[in-house]
Amino acid sequence: MTVAVAVALVAGCGVPVSVSSVTAPDDFDTPVPVPPLAPSEVAADGTRTFRLTAQEGTTRFLDGIETPTWGFDGDLLGPTLRASRGEQVAVEVRNELPEPTSVHWHGMHLPAAMDGGPHQPVDPGEVWRPTWRVDQPAATLWYHPHPHGRTEEHVYRGLAGFFLLDDPAAPDVGLPHAYGVDDVPVVVQDRNLDDDGTLDLDGGEVGVLGSLVTANGVHGGHLTVTTERVRLRLLNGSTGRTYAFGFTDDRTFLQVASDGGLLPSPVEATRVRLSPGERAEIVVTMTPGETVRLRSFRPDLGRVAAGFAMGANDEFDVLELRAADALAASPEVADVLTTLEPLREADADVTRTFSVAGREINGRRMDMSRIDETVEVGATEIWEVRNDDAVPHNLHVHDVQLRVLDIDGGAPPAALGGPKDTVYLEPRRTYRLIMRFEDYTDPAVPYMVHCHLLLHEDEGLMAQFVVVEPGAEVRSSTREKSAHADH
Ligand SMILES: [Cu+2]
């Protein structure tokens, strides 16, 4: 293999930052696999049930090297769950790992006891069966473990999959939608391997910045494109690395969706920055017979402290798009994709302030037995979140899709104008986020709000909030195990 060494850069303040490298593949000849759609059964009462088994396996990331990995229903990653708005879904989560795990439905609006966070552990040999009604716009969501203090390692070992939501009532806005043909989910992750091929978990300030970058688990892969336009549902499934995706020829593409669904209108872009946990759906136009690569360019991480690289120097190709000699026609993408329900500052009932620094939120580390915030159902709230560090963080809020009101008082870029559940926090900046809490209350089971740089989450950068009926009493400590696993 060849090693691409990034050119040394000089940070804005004139201090050189360290050089890091990502391993370039020898070629892009391996087809990028499309995650299989998970089978499901629909019961007489309409409940659609999926089954997922977390298990051990091995993966050949590099020729001739078997790496022990974890996956759902396989050696690495997991099948794509897919359901429609209005459906009651259930998932039988079986744990065949040697230690407890959990499965969190990232981006899903659902009762706290079904959320799959640290209060819903699944012990080895046990089955957990959450169920909820899908009631939110079409979106590219995902699932991954969220065990207390162990999330980074479980995701890094390979436990992650897509959960796609459809909305049959939404109008056709010309987006490619043939799964695995012109509508392809792509999870990008980075890892480091030790000399013996095992996963290296040692990382720095933001966790692991891996030299081995994969798309759907493949290093150096390609997708064959057979249509004029292809929709890529990009997921940053890394534990610490932030990407700035674009194409090797700097072509313009359309970003059509963010974490929680469609943007109001397509955004013409040449880059999309995704921090861990974030998603973007993009539509790329191809010409017959051409080849172009999806590249992660040096990401603009904001005003990061001098001397820290944090992956800001890394530039590398993630996968290759190979267009067939004849491409089937694709519809035009509409100018208006959706009308977002307004979330107005004037309608906000509550403003909360969060300072993110080190491994703390508002000066406190995560405590499973402490409720940090109590929210009344039906409330529209503004969460004013400041990254008080000179290093990157981000913020993921469970249960809701929020909107970015402003950043340091200024309007957010158009790409941040849609529903979000995970927001990158540039150093020393203040983000005002607006969200509404609806439908579900549980005074005893909290939702999480945390940094999705998973090392930070595990080390304590997480807080707990409950959603309650107005005026309800809140227990001071949560139950040890809220939704007990079935035996
Ligand atoms: Cu963080």
From TrEMBL:
Signal peptide: none annotated. It comes from the Bacteria. Pfam families: Cu-oxidase_2, Cu-oxidase_3. Residues 54-168, 355-468 form the Plastocyanin-like domain. Keywords: Metal-binding, Oxidoreductase. PROSITE patterns: MULTICOPPER_OXIDASE2. The keyword Metal-binding applies. CDD domains: CuRO_1_CueO_FtsP, CuRO_3_CueO_FtsP. GO terms for molecular function: copper ion binding; oxidoreductase activity. Belongs to the multicopper oxidase family. PANTHER family: BILIRUBIN OXIDASE (PTHR48267:SF1), CUPREDOXIN SUPERFAMILY PROTEIN (PTHR48267). This is Copper oxidase. It comes from Cellulomonas cellasea DSM 20118.
